[in-house]
């Protein structure tokens, strides 16, 4: 039996005109801004302000009010230098810019010779311009504490995030269900268009894959409330991630993670009479690398990473089934995920940047006991199947400063994820109620194949105005051409 659902070419168009905090101006970056003044608090127009990072230096002059702004900064550490003729030079080091943050630095230059003065005061850790509730999680934090191997395992570090009750890849945020969140990576949505999950999804197996491996992430931001209107697609939380990028210094790493089933404590077995098989061990291993560096110093950079993950779950027939039916199986379910990520960044001028990112998690579950019920029938091979799942993503971005008061940001992205199950035995599934322990026999029964696609176009403009204070006007158009095709089937003859 075969049923098909086709949802293709459905556009979603959103127009945005809002007065919002400046923190919303860049989806994948942050901002350093501030004022250069003299000891009496008077502004110093025309002061030279320079910031330096792994991706080079940027320099601007302060305006009539002595103010400066560096938008579209890659999350990381920056050094700042401010100088003005006839005044000392001030330096501030290790200014931390986080995803979607606005860091304010106030610089005081005293009259005198051009000696250097180190600014020891730290930038504020709390952005008072934003009412957003949530947390920003850095790659250093994720690497330094015990977490799982997916970005979803880091989300529990944010407030209002709990187990979603569906699977660990889609947590409940601020009371929503696990499938009502929005997941963004490098400015593009990676949500499944049929179910809303992070990456591929199946009715039988739930969420599969990782969406993106956290080893490739620079920062993860979880917004659980109070976020800006441009993120209105989220009925639950908004999860924003930015991938790592290269810099002026070549660097890389080689790593492996191992989880041994033999080192696990004994797993508690459910006494539920409906349970027909138990997981008695999980073994996982992955071997990966990441590397990045300059193509042209201060102008162009690259980053690449690859991390295949191999997982084996061992299941055993439940005691009540084994005792009644006279068989006991111990079966290994094997799956492999080929996580990858790469990006290129080119800055033709200090005010403009172009980037291209690609990442994905194509995966395969080898023909075998992918379903737990294979351990609960006399012939396990009748319940064998092969899985193909995961996704591919590519996103191109342009960020630029049109003038001191106008910013522009453009995005073109494509997301595709798929889930496909191929049963080994094409026989109808039945249920034997007459047995001492009722159970299924025959093929796997229901199975599916679905494909989710989303082509995304977005352009945003930011305008800063002064008059009775500073105001930020934000204009934008977002267009998504989404597709979802699903085929549901049952083993056995059709009709």
List its salient traits:
single chain; 495 residues; mainly beta; Immunoglobulin-like; eleven-stranded antiparallel sheet; 30 strands; TonB-dep_rcpt-like; Beta-barrel_TonB_sf
> Poorly predicted ranges (pLDDT <50, ≥5 residues)?
1-5, 16-25
Task: Based on Cα principal axes, name the global outline.
Answer: elongated
Total count of domains? 2
Cα-to-Cα separation, first versus last residue? 6 Å
**SS strand fraction:** over 45%
The biggest beta sheet, please?
Answer: 11 strands, antiparallel
Task: Report helical residue fraction.
Answer: under 10%
> What's the oligomerization state?
single chain
The tally of helices reads 2
- The tally of strands reads 30
pLDDT average, as an integer?
84
Q: Output the radius of gyration.
A: 27 Å
Structural class: mainly beta
What does this structure look like?
The structure is a single chain. The protein has two domains: 2-17 and 131-490, no CATH class; 24-118, Sandwich (Immunoglobulin-like), CATH 2.60.40.1120. The longest helix is centred in the middle third of the chain and has 7 residues, at 319-325. The chain is built from two helices and 30 strands. It is mainly beta. Strands 1, 19, 20, 21, 22, 23, 24, 25, 26, 29 and 30 form an eleven-stranded antiparallel β-sheet that branches. Strands 4-3-6-7-9 form a five-stranded mixed β-sheet, with no helix packed on it. It has a five-stranded mixed β-sheet with strand order 10-17-18-13-14. A hairpin with a 4-residue loop joins strand 25 and strand 26. It starts with a strand and ends in a 5-residue tail after the last strand.
């Amino acid at each position: 039996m075969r049923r098909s659902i086709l949802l293709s070419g459905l556009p979603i168009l959103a127009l945005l005109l809002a007065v919002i905090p400046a923190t919303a101006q860049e989806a994948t970056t942050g901002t350093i801004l501030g004022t250069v003044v003299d000891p009496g608090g008077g502004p110093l127009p025309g002061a030279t302000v320079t910031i330096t990072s792994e991706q080079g230096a940027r320099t601007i002059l302060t305006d009539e009010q002595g103010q400066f702004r560096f938008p579209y900064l890659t999350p990381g550490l920056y050094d700042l230098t401010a100088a003005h003729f006839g005044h000392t030079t001030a330096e501030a080091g290790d200014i931390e810019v986080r995803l979607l943050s606005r860091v304010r630095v106030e610089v005081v230059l005293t009259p005198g010779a051009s000696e250097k003065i180190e600014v020891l005061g730290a930038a504020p850790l709390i952005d008072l311009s934003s009412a957003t509730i949530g947390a920003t999680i850095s790659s250093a934090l994720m690497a330094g504490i015990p977490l799982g191997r997916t970005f979803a395992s880091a989300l529990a570090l944010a407030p209002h995030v709990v187990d979603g009750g569906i699977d660990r890849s889609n947590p409940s945020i601020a009371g929503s269900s696990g499938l009502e969140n929005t997941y963004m990576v490098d400015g593009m949505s990676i949500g499944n268009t049929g179910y809303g999950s992070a990456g591929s999804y199946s009715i039988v197996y739930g969420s599969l894959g990782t969406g993106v491996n956290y080893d490739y992430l620079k920062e993860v931001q979880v917004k659980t409330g109070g976020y800006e209107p441009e993120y209105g697609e989220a009925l639950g939380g908004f999860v924003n991630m930015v991938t790592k990028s290269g810099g002026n210094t070549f660097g890389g790493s080689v790593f492996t993670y191992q989880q041994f089933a033999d080192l696990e404590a004994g797993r508690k077995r459910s006494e539920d009479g409906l349970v027909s098989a138990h997981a008695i061990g999980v073994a996982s291993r992955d071997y990966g690398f990441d590397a990045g560096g300059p193509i042209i110093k201060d102008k162009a950079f690259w980053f690449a990473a690859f991390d295949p993950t191999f997982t084996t779950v061992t299941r055993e027939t439940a005691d009540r089934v084994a005792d009644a039916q006279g068989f006991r199986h111990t079966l290994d379910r094997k799956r492999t995920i080929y996580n990858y990520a790469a990006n290129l960044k080119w800055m033709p001028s200090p005010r403009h940047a172009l980037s291209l990112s690609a990442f994905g998690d194509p995966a395969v579950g080898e023909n075998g006991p992918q379903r737990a019920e294979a351990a609960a029938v006399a012939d396990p091979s009748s319940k064998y199947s092969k899985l193909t799942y995961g996704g591919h993503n590519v996103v191109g971005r342009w960020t630029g400063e049109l003038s001191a008061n106008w910013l522009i940001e453009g995005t073109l992205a494509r997301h595709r994820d798929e889930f496909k199950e191929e049963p080994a035995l094409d026989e109808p599934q039945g249920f034997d109620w007459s047995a001492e322990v009722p159970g299924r026999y025959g093929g796997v029964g229901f199975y599916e194949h679905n494909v989710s696609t989303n082509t995304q176009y977005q352009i945003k403009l930011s305008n800063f105005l002064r008059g009775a204070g500073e105001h930020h006007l934000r204009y934008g158009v977002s267009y998504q051409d989404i597709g979802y095709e699903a085929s549901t089937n049952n083993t056995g003859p059709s009709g």
